[in-house]
Write a structure and sequence with these properties.
Helices cover 42% and strands 18% of the residues. The chain has a five-stranded mixed beta sheet, with helices on both faces. A hairpin with a 2-residue loop joins strand 2 and strand 3. Helix 1 runs parallel beside helix 2, helix 4 packs antiparallel against helix 7 and helix 7 runs parallel beside helix 8.
């Protein structure tokens, strides 16, 4: 594979507009424009997100090229997120990528957002080691929760997924009930550090196999908080740290229970995590304990490659390019792109 291949990655699946330049597997730039407008609504508003992407896409790509100290004419390949995600947001990124690739007369590849999260492990960086094949990847984000057997860069099999809500959504919706601002997952992680994981218990789903369900847990958390507020209006303020610790423990324990089952079923002992929730400190610490107890090799991505970013899109595009998987200009963005 050409180590000097220069790839422009474009990511716009949700509320972050991102562009990155990779030379081979090395990040030259990875620019992310966040959208603070959603904080006042307690979650992402799709129409507002797509409008913000339209405003951000050109300056973000321009910044990525300038920071990488290259010219547009140096770019050999453009990779963009095809899906899954918010359709309006995806359309902004995909339309821009197609137009720029056409203008520069260079190849174009479309990338599955969730596979890109997994392949972020293969970005060259001194602070992260690359997984050995095959490995299991627990991919956890605001919209998805999956267990994937990764056999090669372009050969992955999903063996478990959520039947309803994702773990990241359980974090954010719980945070909203607690009165925490969006995004709430990192705040729960922060307050949980000073709380007791056993202070409160919530209903756990009984789902056979390797699939997940978080809707029942969300309901249990909501009911517990609302019923407690009826007798004590200051219940949340008095118990915020303990509530956060107990909620976080409930969500993470479900994830670890399933990855344990997957290890037993597949006999694979190389374990990775990916996606926005992989930045959670409790998940990381509990996974390290599991690795010690079961003699596992674990792979945890650098924090900046956990959340949505274009570097992961670029690295995924690089491997699709090596497999001669190119996008047609008639290819459409897909909000519900399957794995």
């Amino acid at each position: 594979m050409n180590k000097d291949l220069i790839v422009l990655g474009i990511e716009s699946s949700c509320d972050d507009t991102s562009a990155a330049i990779l030379r081979g597997s090395t990040v030259l730039s990875n620019i992310i424009a966040n959208q603070s407008i959603h904080e006042q609504y307690g979650g992402v508003v799709p129409e507002l997100a797509s409008r913000a992407h339209q405003q951000n896409i050109i300056p973000v790509v321009d910044s990525a090229i300038k920071k990488a100290k290259i010219k547009k004419s140096d770019i050999n390949l453009i990779a963009y997120t095809k899906g899954p995600g918010l359709l309006g947001s995806l359309l902004v990124g995909s339309s821009f990528a197609k137009s720029l690739a056409l203008g520069l007369d260079i190849p174009l590849v479309s990338v599955n957002h969730m596979k890109a999260h997994i392949l972020a492990h293969f970005i060259d960086h001194k602070e992260q080691k690359k997984p050995n094949f095959p490995f299991l990847c627990l991919t956890v984000s605001g919209g998805h929760t999956q267990i994937v057997v990764v056999k090669d860069f372009n050969d992955m099999e999903m063996i478990g997924t959520t039947l309803d809500d994702a773990a990241g959504e359980a974090f954010d919706k719980s945070a909203k009930v607690l009165g925490l601002r969006y995004p709430g997952g990192p705040l729960i992680d922060k307050y949980a550090k000073n709380g007791n994981i056993n202070a409160f218990t919530f209903g756990k789903p009984k789902i056979e196999g390797l699939n997940f369900s978080f809707s029942g847990l969300k309901t249990s958390i909501l009911n517990k908080i609302n019923s407690s507020l009826m007798t004590d209006p200051n219940f949340i303020d008095k118990n915020l740290n303990n509530l956060c610790a107990s909620i976080q423990h409930s969500i993470i324990s479900i994830l670890l229970e399933k990855i344990n089952k997957a290890i037993t079923k597949t006999k694979i002992k190389n374990i990775a995590i990916a996606g926005g929730v992989s930045a959670n400190s409790y998940l990381r610490s509990e996974l390290k304990k599991l690795a010690t107890n079961k003699n596992l090799e674990i792979y945890i991505p650098k924090f900046e490659f956990c959340t949505d970013n274009a570097a992961m899109i670029a690295i995924a595009g690089k491997y699709k390019f090596s497999n001669n998987e190119f996008a047609d200009y008639s290819e459409s963005a897909s909000a519900r792109l399957t794995f």
